[in-house]
Amino acid sequence: MLDTATINTIARAYDAAEKDRHRIRPPSVQYEGFAIEDAYAVQRRWVELKVARGNPVKGHKIGLTSRAMQRQAGIEEPDYGALMADMFYGTGSEIPMSRFLQPRLECELGFVIGRRLKGPGCTIFDVLSATDYITPACEIVDGRTHRVDPDTGKPRSVLDSIADNAGNAALIIGGRPIKPMDVDLRWVSVLCHRNNVIEETGVAAAVLNHPANGVAWLANKLAPFDIALEPGDFVLGGSFTGMVEARAGDMFHVDYGPLGSISARFV
To answer: What is the CATH number of the domain that holds 144?
Structure first.
């Protein structure tokens, strides 16, 4: 594993890249032996920098939950990142393009934790029992790492995305909150409209067969760091659509059927 000074250097590079809206070289290319443990260590250090500036952690995101995306990334499990207080927008918001490099939107379900949830051994039933309510949500994905290293021509890897807070930049919450047993969550579906054109559709079973499975996986992955999902935490359960690029002036209407909808405009 990389030494603490190097981890800190990479984390500060990502922090500056987000604030100044520029991309950095992939750490996986710059540092020989850069491993998944290093990537998560960078992510945790970057989160610490944000918290120290008065931007607290309000939850977590789960990514790479579909088998297709995992095969594309060359991994066999999801990844995760932190949701900070300044990332949250409500439906009807105008989303400023000035805070992103290349924003893209994904459609998900958000879990609001009502009772402390901690692994190991956490199951889907524990998640459903501990969840206060579930609501439609859209994640805004961005990347602070060059897709191709400008010096070597080597592509970035999933490890660079993990270090980059799993590509998370913001999220939009809306629709109709429901209790976890009100509907069969596997069959929650979505129509993602951009400028009145359906760009993506999906069904929530694409997330590890049931979206609550992702939350159980997260609780178990965080357990070795003595981190639990706490009451009030918001957890993005994983996307069940492809990403849709957001451009200045784009209007999104994301229709979750009986669960309501989310609307936002990028300005």
So the answer is: 3.90.850.10
CA distances to 6, 49, 118 from 54, in Å:
24, 9, 26
Kindly state whether residue 85 falls inside one of the protein's structural domains.
yes
Indicate whether 34 belongs to any domain.
no
| Number of structural domains in the chain | 1
- Residue pair 83/58 in contact (Cβ under 8 Å)? The answer is yes
Q: Has residue 28 been placed in a domain?
A: no
Cα 77 to Cα 218: distance, rounded to the nearest angstrom: 11
Low-confidence ranges of the chain (pLDDT < 70): 66-76
Strands of the chain, DSSP E: 57-63, 79-84, 88-90, 93-95, 104-113, 131-141, 168-173, 189-194, 197-203, 234-236, 244-245, 251-255, 261-266
Q: Quick one: CA dihedral 245, 164, 122, 111, positive or negative? A: negative
Q: Are 131 and 112 in contact (CB under 8 A)?
A: yes
- Domain membership of residue 184 as a residue range: 57-266
Pairing between strand 57-63 and 234-236?
parallel
Residue 20 resides in a domain: no
On whether the pTM is more than 0.85, the answer is yes
